[in-house]
Amino acid sequence: MATVKLRKVHWRDELPYMVGGSVKWQERPDGEEPLLEVSGYLRGRPLCANNLAHLSHLGTFQIHSINGPPDPCPVHRQGNDMEGLGELLDAADEQAEPLTWVKDVDPMANEQTWPTDEELGPAPGDGVGGDSDEDDVPMAIPYENDDAVSTKSRKSIYTEIQTQIDSLMATDIRRLENMTEEEREAERKHYEAQRRQNLGLAGEDREFPDEVDAPWNIPARQRFLRYRGLASMRTSKWDPYENLPPDYARIFQFQNIKTTQKRAWMAFDDMPVPPDRYITIALKGVPRAQFDASYATLKARNGFVTLSGLRKHEHKWSVMHYNLQFSKQYSQPVKSKESVLMHVGFRIMRCNPIYSEPSMKADKHKLMRYYHPEDKFAVASCFAPISYAPMPVLMFKTPELDAPTADLVAYGNVMGADPNRVILKKVVLTGSPYRIHKKQTVVRFMFYNEKDVNWFKPVELFTKLGQSGRIKTPIGTHGYMKCQMSGTLRAEDTICMALYKRVFPKWTTIPCSWLPEVEGKFRVPSLEDHGPVQEDLEDSLTPSMSAVQ
């Protein structure tokens, strides 16, 4: 042990962090809300009171001030060691990092009207080469504020939605509390049956990847209306700003993430509070009743309070991507959009990520319906707070309903924030040869009516044995079609057609917080927990394009 050298944790050394040795409340005069004081030894990088502070399991808050109390365990004790060092820095309101986490969205911004003649005419002072604030605007199209819809009314929309969510959560909690043992046993059996069904679907996905059957009672042109054919997934173009969901108007997008990350790192060099000293950080806006209950639960579990400083923009949300490697300790496949627990650095969240193939040089990435242990590597994507690389990621999953423990499913690191990453869901329609004559083949069981054959006629065909072809003409009215292939088919071959559509993660991410209700029930954090919505844009961040319905 004497010869072993302690390895540095590089990602942790790039952040200011501390373990709270002392946690107490500071009362303030004139009826102001009390401050939560966390004392400990600052490690990692320097800290500034204008930064946001994250308490693991508890949330993110603004720093009111940073004080330098006497060091309880000084290395070299001197006569004045017990004298207070005074306040080191007081956060200024105009310089402090806000608690903004999403963009304020105007639901009326998507309404389009025909422009008037004055609007179509040249703007006053418009010229080529002149200075304009629009020079730095990227291709993303932001939502514009509408004077007809006030900020108060927009916030009331979010409040109403959150009230409905809280009501549903409260109803679900009451249902769980009033369940009998027989009902709980039936719930567990239903969960186990659902899990076995998912395992069967996962095995089918492994044996027949992406293959689906066209429904016989629904026209295929309606069932696969949002899908399109691609001549080549590698070389075909796909507009990343096409048909974006409304959630993309609430998140942020970097113009240059490397430059922003570099500036965030360099900002720590000029901060006034150096590491390796004993300090007291006063946090404001911490709900006292909820924190006291959470802190009691934390102490009962022999836990401790961990405080870490966030870099600029790390409290804002975007579409985050994580490079994952499947753990050898877990043997079950994980379905896309299945609930998992993600540990990203010091922050923890419950989310439903989608998985895609880790192709680094491609501009389009294939969706993985199931993340199999045999796949080893994958990229998980979800709505989440922005984190700068390098940052470790651990993904856990509960083995059964109401399980007290969680299994490590995968581990990896942060890939980055990129809403423009195109993830395509692939479906393969299959048919069988009915008549074969040289290079011409009659195919059946891919479609079930003549209109579907004509609808998908421009899409290229391929076979599992390496042939390619195209649809020439439908035969009859029951979905039979004549196809021209590149060679003579074998009777056991299968004709396939690949269709693609872009998929997006769902906004179901919940930052894990031990801020319970009065009776100790866990709750979904609301908009008020994360701070106000944003009114103005940051210089290095831009809102993503609005939805095109």
From TrEMBL:
Instruction: Kindly give the SMART domains that the UniProt entry links to this protein.
Output: AARP2CN, DUF663
Query: Lineage of the source organism?
Result: Eukaryota, Discoba, Euglenozoa, Euglenida, Spirocuta
Q: Which Gene Ontology molecular function entries are recorded, alphabetically?
A: GTP binding; GTPase activity; U3 snoRNA binding
Coiled-coil stretches noted in the UniProt entry, renumbered to this chain: 169-196
Q: Domain AARP2CN spans what residues? A: 1-73
Q: State the family it belongs to.
A: Belongs to the TRAFAC class translation factor GTPase superfamily. Bms1-like GTPase family. TSR1 subfamily.
Q: What is the protein's given name?
A: Ribosome biogenesis protein BMS1/TSR1 C-terminal domain-containing protein
Question: Which parts of this chain are annotated as the region Disordered?
Answer: 529-549
Transport in keyword set: no
Q: Which GO terms describe its biological process?
A: endonucleolytic cleavage of tricistronic rRNA transcript (SSU-rRNA, 5.8S rRNA, LSU-rRNA); maturation of SSU-rRNA from tricistronic rRNA transcript (SSU-rRNA, 5.8S rRNA, LSU-rRNA)
